[in-house]
Amino acid sequence: MKQSDTSPIVLLDGITCRFGDVVANDNVKFDLIKGEIHALLGENGAGKSTLMSVLYGLYQPVAGEILVKGKRVNLKSPLDAIELGIAMVHQHFLLTLPHTVVENIIVGLKSKRRVFLDTRSAEEKIMELSKKYGLKVNPRAIVGNLSVGEQQRVEILKALYRDIDILILDEPTSMLTPQEEKSLFDTLQSMVAQGLSIIFITHKLQEVMAVSTRVTVLRNGKSLGTFRTSDTNESSLAQLMIGRTIIQHAEYSGRNKIGKVVLGIKNVSALNNSKILFLKDFSIELAGGEVLGIAGVDGNGQSELAEVISGLRKAINGQVIMDGHDITNQSPRSIRGSGLAYVPEDRMDTGLILEYSVAENLVLDRYSSEPYSGRLFLKYSDINKFAEKIIMDFDIRGVPGLNFPARSMSGGNLQKIVLGRELSRNPKVLIAHNPTRGLDIGATEYVHKQLLKQAANGVGVLLISLDLDEIFAISDRIAVLFEGKIMGIFDREHANIDEIGLLMGGKKDTVDSTKVQESDDK
Amino acid sequence: MTSLPIHNILLHKIKPRSIVPFLTGGLAFVVGGIILSSAGVDPIHAYQIMIKGAFGSVRALADTLVKTTSLLILGLAVSVAFKCKIWNIGAEGQLYFGALGGLLAGLSFIGAVPILAPIAVIIMGFVFGSLFSMVPAALKVKLGVNEVIVTVLLNFVALLFISYLLHGPLKAPGFLSYSPNIFPQSELPILLPNTRLSVGILIAAGSAIGVYLLMSKTKIGFEIRSVGANIKAARYVGMNVGKSILITMGISGGLAGVAGAILIAGVQHRLIEGISPGYGFIAVIVALLGKQSPVGVTIVAFFFSALLAGSEVMYRTLGVPVALAQTLQALVLVFVLIGELFLRWQPKWRKG
Amino acid sequence: MIEEALIVGIFASGVRMSIPILFAALGENIAERSGVLNLGVEGMMLIGAFSGFMGTYMTGNIVVGLLMAMGGAAVLSALMAFLSVTIRTNQLAAGLAVWLLGVGLAALLYRLSFGVVTIAPSIHSFNPVEIPFLSQIPIAGPILFNHDPMIYLAFLLIPITHIFLFKTNLGLKIRTVGENPKQADTLGVNVYRIRYLAIIIGGAFAGLGGAYLSLAITGSFSENITGGQGWIALAVVIFGRWRPFWIVVGALIFGMVNAFQLGLQSTGTTIPFQFLLMLPYLLPIAILAATYKRSVAPAALALPYTRGER
């Protein structure tokens, strides 16, 4: 039994949050003890972010009470939370890229010079905090020019600058390399040593075990209990989190025979939207029947790669050859016609037109040819017939009716529409970019099954994913993308997650060269 | 929310979505009434005269329908562009160019050929309007320039150009800056004797049907709607977005040009400055209120035309400025936009 | 020399003609920096022109007129703010509605007040105020320092708006709201209130711009007195990359082109005057075409903000 003060610094009791019909938090109890790192664990949609948004004043719960430092409080806005010493670092940084670090940190605060900005004393304070917690940053730098890790430091400084005692971090490692992760964990430990209390939202079991003192598991809006991390382990947490025993991904069992090369990318370079070189002399080959996984931290050229192959982005150098035909910089329409299918990263923004019906979405890529239309007019009866077949084949559920927008359907079913459309093209090459992002376990397994089925039929599948588990689950070969170049390619049997993690972070020299196939000479 | 019988009927039988705009739009007239009475005019009396002036006699109704001809076609023109998320505020200028095209056809030798002549006038109206709209379209497609400001400024350019022509090369002999009359064979047949109601109204109705078929049943319409709904997705599936934008503006400008040509061939029989009292701008409100459905556009166009016709009579009888009509139209839009707030909350009521 | 006098006259005239757009564009810049695209500028200028005229006509006091101009335009922009920020309707639609409302109201109220008259009511416009010493500088003096007080006010507004936006706390809040409203919100900035403020300030400026047209340039009011200058102001904001200094340059260019084409008309050129009048409208189009690709707007421009929107 500890003698130290264990009365919670934060207590959330009986919190219930509703958005329309959806109950995001259901009578949740959560407490935070001073000086601890408390992990909030759960899958996508479990209610973790919502709960913390309540604590941060972004949402008001319909039931329950909040006690901070022993007092009941009513948090009507983030300003209230900040005044109580609570700050939140969001998963997707809330930064203004064209502004400096200082401007990003001090916006909204009163300054000593009354109406005017006081950047000089702000800079001094930032440098102090920077030293105290080991968060190196240049106050005058333009945030848009900083690396992801540095930007996260700005986010944390934004919170620390406001003299807070309680810091909430929402999925802080989702965009970091393994090395930046470690640096973050060190920072967290030093913050706690200085008296801060930290809440750490995550869905990654490994992180919970690595850094937290206690962990609370949420599932479907309900809390399944709070545990001392030392009293539990990954599998029990996983069971709670998911609600059933994890189906271990089938051990990699080798694959059917792999055919000839269907996609060759040779020395391709491309610029991103800010005109910076994002793909640098990139080369790789994909064979029919194999699943080639491209691993890497977000922002290293994945989108640019997919877009160059599919014709949505100009390759300023190099060639893309599909099944012997040079398709470099051709129109998306003609590349698709040559045999490419592409499941884009953003199903709602790019892959579908949500105001259209399921049927219309299914023919987006083929409406202008027979039998779906004549010379002028669309043939809706043929379109609907096709749609019905695909809906059955792909088990698409929740279809609101032939003429209703697809908008109301669930993420998993929306992705099935995209899959149904793309896979029914009988492609030669299939690009799947983060195909299971935001999907629950059932939908994820379904998608993986479909991808493997395509490979079994001889399709070359290029799987670009931020989810290393997914890459390891279904890839035949794994390539690592860092800053627009391939750092290494491994056969699945020889792939080692630590090495790959290092490559993802850019460290090339620690890799054992005998295990790595260099990418360029086929 | 408990469901009283009345609530049931109101919420489930009559779609709130269609009623709310009328209720909120009606508030515009309340505001208009306040302005009138503060100027010493009895609003009820004024509105009565307005209604009579729009519907009270065959002549009044004909006048309303004549205006509907213009507003409907223009409303369709603008709403086609809106469907593609293109903000064509240049319908007024495109109308004038179309009128120019119609005038030239009507003055040329084809203009003297019976039956062919009015058809030629309308077609040239479409062509000229369409060509003029290619300027903002090309700027948008090739250079990514936002079309709102360009189309608005081009209105001024068009009007100035027409003014130059009417003071110069196209000026008919005499003091006034009018063009010569078109050949009588180019004139659109009048449907109702002693009025200005011509075949134009049928062309307008035909346009509404045509736009409906185009947008909901054809491949081109599908592309236009797709680009408007989600341009990223349209590009991703391989649609030629630039082509769709050009086609959309071409149709939009062309329809506006047809409206101009009808003003020439059906109403004025010559080109004058001010042949359109700002119809192209009213059409923007019509398109926004009509929610880009041809039925909606037709209803709003008719209603606004009635407003205009009635306000002209109000001016002649009571001296109330015609600007009241324009103010009312803008107020209707404002109140309907405000009313959308309630429509967005409506699904919550339904679940009760 | 006669030629020098003519050129000086044109430039001085150019400065005057740039003022309405200068006011309107500087104001619109503040609104757009907060993330709101206000297409209704033209309507606000018209309301400002009318209210300013009415106020001065009724009281004989120009200051009253200016205050009424700012007030009238501010009311109309409050409506714009209500539609854009509270109702969160599409900002382009709201702007168009407000524009047409401004046009209609200004014309309606004017006609109701004065009826149909053959000689338009007019007022005595500003007297130029020479600034001692500075106005004696050859060439630059008469161009810049021999104007009515509103122009001096406009000159002052240039550094004022720059300092306001870039050196004050409120300015930083406005800019952050326009780039990343969620960030501002989570740091306790009231996004809605900031946007209301920015829009209303912008509208008041536009009202001043309109008032300058009726009070200083013409001395009377007519329905078309703005002639599209509100729209040109929108283009100038884009050309000026949302920075006050370049916006002023843009406004001056417009003013000079306008003065130039008027000067050309008066010298009896063979070019039909309509084509010369087209220049002020074609120029912004040309500039937009030339500079559009490189413009970086405030990231949240024209996007409605809802707290907690997923």
Quick tags:
heterotrimer, A: 522 residues, alpha/beta, Rossmann fold, 6-stranded mixed sheet, 20 strands, B: 352 residues, mainly alpha, 14 helices
Which secondary structure elements does this structure contain, and how are they paired or packed?
The complex is a heterotrimer of chains A (522), B (352) and C (310).
Chain A: E1 8-19, E2 22-33, E3 37-41, H1 48-55, E4 63-68, E5 71-73, H2 78-83, E6 86-89, H3 101-106, H4 119-133, H5 148-160, E7 166-170, H6 178-193, E8 197-202, H7 205-211, E9 214-219, E10 222-228, H8 234-242, E11 261-271, E12 277-287, E13 291-295, H9 302-310, E14 317-322, E15 325-326, H10 332-337, E16 340-343, H11 347-351, H12 358-362, H13 380-393, H14 411-423, E17 429-433, H15 441-456, E18 460-465, H16 468-474, E19 477-482, E20 485-491, H17 497-504
Parallel strand pairs in A: 3-8, 3-9, 6-7, 7-8, 13-18, 13-19, 16-17, 17-18
Antiparallel strand pairs in A: 1-2, 1-4, 4-5, 9-10, 11-12, 11-14, 14-15, 19-20
Helix pairs in contact in A: 14-15
Chain B: H1 5-13, H2 16-38, H3 43-55, H4 58-83, H5 91-107, H6 116-143, H7 147-167, H8 200-217, H9 219-229, H10 231-236, H11 241-268, H12 279-289, H13 294-318, H14 323-351
Chain C: H1 2-33, H2 41-59, H3 62-86, H4 91-114, E1 129-130, H5 140-144, E2 146-147, H6 149-167, H7 169-179, H8 181-186, H9 191-217, H10 229-239, H11 244-266, H12 273-291
Antiparallel strand pairs in C: 1-2
Q: Can you give me a brief rundown of this structure?
A:
The complex is a heterotrimer of chains A (522), B (352) and C (310). Chain A has 522 residues and is an alpha/beta fold.
Structural notes for this entry:
The complex is a heterotrimer of chains A (522), B (352) and C (310). Chain A is of the alpha/beta class and 522 residues long. Helices cover 31% and strands 25% of the residues of chain A. Chain A folds into 4 domains: 1-85 and 165-243, Rossmann fold, CATH 3.40.50; 95-163, no CATH class; 252-336 and 460-522, Rossmann fold (3-Layer(aba) Sandwich); 340-426, P-loop containing nucleotide triphosphate hydrolases (Rossmann fold). In chain A, the strands form 4 sheets. A 6-stranded mixed sheet of chain A has the order 6-7-8-3-9-10, with helices on both faces. In chain A, strand 7 (166-170), helix 6 and strand 8 form a beta-alpha-beta unit. Chain A starts with 7 loop residues before the first strand and ends in an 18-residue tail after the last helix. The model of chain A is unreliable at 244-252 and 510-522 (pLDDT under 50). With 352 residues, chain B is an all-alpha fold. Chain B has helices spanning 5-13, 16-38, 43-55, 58-83, 91-107, 116-143, 147-167, 200-217, 219-229, 231-236, 241-268, 279-289, 294-318, 323-351. In chain B, helix 2 packs across helix 3, helix 5 (91-107) crosses helix 11 and helix 12 (279-289) runs parallel beside helix 14 (323-351). Chain B starts with a helix and ends with a helix. Chain C has 310 residues and is mainly alpha-helical. Helices cover 71% and strands 1% of the residues of chain C. Chain C has helices spanning 2-33, 41-59, 62-86, 91-114, 140-144, 149-167, 169-179, 181-186, 191-217, 229-239, 244-266, 273-291; strands at residues 129-130, 146-147. Chain C has a two-stranded antiparallel ribbon. At the A-C interface, helix 2 and helix 3 of A face helix 7 and helix 8 of C.
